[in-house]
C-alpha cells in the first residue's frame, strides 16, 4: 500500500516542495495539514501535484482546540499514519509587541512548538500502530537555533534560560511572553521555538524509539531564502537576503532542493537512524550534524517536555 504522510504547513515553501517531492514518487498519500484550505488547494495545483496523491485537512497550530479536532478527524478517517512532518512555522522578526495563540501563548513558540508538541503526542499511537515497514516522525529544525554555528550567533541568540517564562504560561499577563522570562523579541522567540523543536525530537527519541520503532529526526535543510517565512521582514532585507545567502554564505538552497532533502528524511532507507539532526554539505550529501550545547541538553529537553505537557493540557 501507499504510505500516509501528514505535512503541516504544506501550503507554501518547504512544506509544499516536500509534498510535491513525495507525491511524485507515487508511493505516498500526502495529507496537507493547513490553516487555509483554499491557499493549500491552489498551492497543490500550482506545483502540479496530482489529485490522487494528496488531500487537504484543516489544521491551525495556533489553536490547541484545532489541533485536537485535526487529530480526531484523522483518527476517524481510519487511515494508518506512517510519517508525520512538523514543518509549519511563523517568524515575526519585526514585531514590537507579542501576539498570542487562541489559548494565550506567545504566537511563535505557541505555534511552532506547543501546537506541534500536542499534535505529535496525539498522533504517536497512530504511528505506533501502523504496519508500514518504517515509520518516521520529523520536526524541522534550524541552524538559527544552533549557537555552535555562524548563523546561530547572529544576535539575538536563542536562549531558553531556565524556562521560567514558559513555566509561567508564556503570556505577558502572568509573567513574560519569552521562554527565558526576558523582554519580548520576535526574532529570538522564533529561534527559541526552533531549539524547542530540536529538543522535543530528542526527547521523543529517548522516550519512544525503542518501544515503538519510530525513527525520530530533525534537520536543517539549508537556507531557503525565498520562502514566505521572511514575509514579515523589512523590504530591504527581503531584497538582499537571497543574494547574500547565494553568493556570500553559500548556504542558499532552492525550495525544490530543500523539499527533496526533507523528502529523503521521510523516505530514504539510508536515513533511518533515530535521534539524528540531518544537514547537507555543498554537494547535497546528507550527514549527521552536531547540535549546539543548549539544543542537545538532555536535562533541558526533559524539563521542556514536562512544562509543555502541562501547558497543552496533557499532564
Ligand atoms: P513558509 O512561511 O513558506 O511556510 C510556513 C508554513 O507554515 C506555511 O504553509 C504557513 O501557512 C504555515 N503556518 C504558519 N502558521 C500556521 C498555523 N498557525 N497553522 C498551520 N500552519 C501554519 O516558510 P518555510 O517554508 O521557509 O518554513 C518551513 C519550515 O522550515 C519552518 O519550520 C522553518 O522554521 C524551517 N526553516 C526554514 C528555513 C528557511 O531558510 N526558509 C531555514 C531553516 C528552517 P500559510 O501558507 O497559511 O501562511
TrEMBL record:
<keyword id="KW-0521">NADP</keyword>
<dbReference type="GO" id="GO:0015995">
    <property type="term" value="P:chlorophyll biosynthetic process"/>
</dbReference>
<dbReference type="GO" id="GO:0009507">
    <property type="term" value="C:chloroplast"/>
</dbReference>
<comment type="similarity">
    <text>Belongs to the short-chain dehydrogenases/reductases (SDR) family. POR subfamily.</text>
</comment>
<comment type="pathway">
    <text>Porphyrin-containing compound metabolism; chlorophyll biosynthesis.</text>
</comment>
<protein>
    <recommendedName>
        <fullName>NADPH-protochlorophyllide oxidoreductase</fullName>
        <ecNumber>1.3.1.33</ecNumber>
    </recommendedName>
</protein>
<comment type="function">
    <text>Phototransformation of protochlorophyllide (Pchlide) to chlorophyllide (Chlide).</text>
</comment>
<keyword id="KW-0560">Oxidoreductase</keyword>
<keyword id="KW-0934">Plastid</keyword>
<keyword id="KW-0150">Chloroplast</keyword>
<dbReference type="GO" id="GO:0016630">
    <property type="term" value="F:protochlorophyllide reductase activity"/>
</dbReference>
<keyword id="KW-0809">Transit peptide</keyword>
<keyword id="KW-0149">Chlorophyll biosynthesis</keyword>
<dbReference type="GO" id="GO:0015979">
    <property type="term" value="P:photosynthesis"/>
</dbReference>
<keyword id="KW-0602">Photosynthesis</keyword>
Amino acid at each position: 500500500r501507499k504510505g500516509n504522510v501528514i505535512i503541516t504547513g504544506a501550503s507554501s515553501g518547504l512544506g509544499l516542495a516536500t509534498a510535491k517531492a513525495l507525491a511524485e514518487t507515487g508511493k505516498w498519500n500526502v495529507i496537507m495539514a493547513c490553516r487555509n484550505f483554499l491557499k493549500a488547494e491552489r498551492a497543490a495545483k500550482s506545483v502540479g501535484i496530482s489529485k490522487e496523491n494528496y488531500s487537504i485537512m484543516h489544521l491551525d497550530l495556533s489553536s490547541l482546540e484545532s489541533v485536537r479536532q485535526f487529530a480526531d478527524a484523522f483518527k476517524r478517517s481510519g487511515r494508518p499514519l506512517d510519517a508525520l512532518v512538523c514543518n509549519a512555522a511563523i517568524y515575526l522578526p519585526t514585531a514590537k509587541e507579542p501576539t498570542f495563540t487562541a489559548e494565550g501563548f506567545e504566537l511563535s513558540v505557541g505555534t511552532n512548538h506547543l501546537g506541534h508538541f500536542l499534535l505529535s503526542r496525539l498522533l504517536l499511537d497512530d504511528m505506533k500502530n501502523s504496519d508500514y515497514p518504517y515509520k518516521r516522525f520529523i520536526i524541522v529544525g534550524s541552524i538559527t537555533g544552533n549557537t555552535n554555528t555562524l548563523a546561530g550567533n547572529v544576535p539575538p541568540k536563542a536562549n531558553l534560560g531556565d524556562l521560567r517564562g514558559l513555566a509561567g504560561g508564556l503570556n505577558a499577563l502572568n509573567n513574560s511572553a519569552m521562554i527565558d522570562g526576558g523582554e519580548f523579541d520576535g526574532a529570538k522567540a522564533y529561534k527559541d521555538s526552533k531549539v524547542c523543536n530540536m529538543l522535543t525530537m530528542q526527547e521523543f527519541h529517548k522516550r519512544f524509539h525503542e518501544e515503538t520503532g519510530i525513527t525520530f529526526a530533525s534537520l536543517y535543510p539549508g537556507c531557503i531564502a525565498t520562502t514566505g517565512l521572511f514575509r514579515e521582514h523589512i523590504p530591504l532585507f527581503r531584497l538582499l537576503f537571497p543574494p547574500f545567502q547565494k553568493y556570500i554564505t553559500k548556504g542558499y538552497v532552492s525550495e525544490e532542493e530543500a523539499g527533496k532533502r526533507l523528502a529523503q528524511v521521510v523516505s530514504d532507507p539510508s536515513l533511518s537512524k533515530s535521534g539524528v539532526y540531518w544537514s547537507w554539505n555543498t554537494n547535497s550529501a546528507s550527514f549527521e550534524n552536531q547540535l549546539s550545547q543548549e539544543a542537545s541538553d538532555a536535562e533541558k529537553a526533559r524539563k521542556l517536555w514536562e512544562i509543555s505537557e502541562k501547558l497543552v493540557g496533557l499532564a
